[in-house]
């Protein structure tokens, strides 16, 4: 649930979102043991500590108002991070302990660097697939099939649930929304329902995979939940998607839209890049599971795979073009022959350049701000209030609801930094609730925010809010399903 991508300035430029989405993925790959960095000085009741909290709140208010004030979200959190750590440095220098604050900053910065490298690789692959027209081809296939509205509702929802664990929830939602808005153009009621279904499905699908959402990636990278253990959340996630979908599908008229013709050809190497992406994911999992090394090692190795393949595509392009020109000329396929005139050599670094750097810098700001507040002692205090004052189940369910308003990234980062003493089942629970809680509101996830821009006027905040009670039923049912199905994992060993 990438809620950090709050307000896209170019909502209709679908091609820019995959990079943005992957940038989001990397942000929270922090390593577990160093997350809980708390300073020797308790600054929670000091003027400096309160000032730091006020600065962070103000910065985040500006982030949430991005769509209104048209200020990029990275600006306020970058400044806030600088001020917060400057205040920490000043206090620790006065106390004669500058080495402690310097070490804490370097540790927090290392966490972000690991995340950035991981995300850059994932983002590069998604952008490469988009450039090779993989997503366009899938959309074109669904458009040409002439499905009924009810079939389209279920197909886009199921595909969002199935694709998001690999391609992430934001890219998947944008792809499915493009299909719906093209096929059902003008039917606002159906588009609104279909977009709600897509948002819920994409967020639910991303909740049971380390690659489906930033929060799951954070938990996996921290070493708290192993790769295969995320699949314990498959059935609760499926329930979270199916309950609202079944109810909403009842209100869809089962009629067919006008047929559309759209032909899209995959560019050369598209299928092989898909295979390389899956190999890269497998390499990252193997590095983490078998070698006990950070997954970023496997991802960077995977970037090497793509670079070698890009070299192969460039070197063999002239011969490939000549063969295709001959073949298309003999067959009289003038459309494909004409398309060869626009062939551009594949360039890996062009894909990296398409990154949404504003989002990457935003994540830097969030990591550093939350890390600074944790170093001051605020996250320890919050942990005591939530996980000592309440029971862990109530705290985790509440934080999931809160993530629909605030953002699941700082929520999950705060929980990881607090390191509450929880059972394996409770860690899976916060992973689930933080992943699907954002579906309660259209602004609660990056998928929802992006679709409000892409389907502007058809999918709205109020249109989503009317169905929030039904989505809440799915949220509650998914929590209960996890508590029941995975009951043995709630035993503290």
**What's the helix-strand series?**
HHHHHHHHHHHHHHHHHHHHHHH
* Number of separate domains: 1
**Tally of helical segments:** 23
Average pLDDT confidence is 78
Strand coverage percent: under 5%
End-to-end Cα distance, whole Å, is: 30 Å
Biggest sheet record: none
The secondary-structure class comes to mainly alpha
Please compute the radius of gyration using only Cα atoms: 23 Å
Number of strands: 0
Q: Which shape, going by the Cα principal axes?
A: globular
Overall helicity:
55-70%
Which regions are unreliable across 5 or more consecutive residues at pLDDT < 50? 1-36
Structure description:
The protein is mainly α and 493 residues long. The chain has one domain (31-303, 350-486). It is built from 23 helices and no strands. It has helices spanning 17-26, 47-64, 66-69, 74-94, 98-131, 134-145, 149-167, 169-183, 188-206, 214-221, 234-249, 270-289, 295-331, 334-339, 348-353, 357-376, 378-388, 392-402, 408-418, 424-436, 446-454, 461-465, 468-485.
Features:
493 residues, mainly alpha, 23 helices, disordered N terminus
Quick synopsis:
The chain contains 23 helices and no strands. It has helices at 17-26, 47-64, 66-69, 74-94, 98-131, 134-145, 149-167, 169-183, 188-206, 214-221, 234-249, 270-289, 295-331, 334-339, 348-353, 357-376, 378-388, 392-402, 408-418, 424-436, 446-454, 461-465, 468-485. Helices cover 70% and strands 0% of the residues.
Present the secondary structure layout.
Layout: H1 17-26, H2 47-64, H3 66-69, H4 74-94, H5 98-131, H6 134-145, H7 149-167, H8 169-183, H9 188-206, H10 214-221, H11 234-249, H12 270-289, H13 295-331, H14 334-339, H15 348-353, H16 357-376, H17 378-388, H18 392-402, H19 408-418, H20 424-436, H21 446-454, H22 461-465, H23 468-485
Helix pairs in contact: 1-5, 1-16, 2-4, 4-5, 4-16, 5-12, 5-13, 5-16, 6-8, 7-8, 7-9, 7-11, 8-9, 8-21, 9-11, 10-19, 11-23, 12-13, 16-19, 17-19, 18-20, 20-23
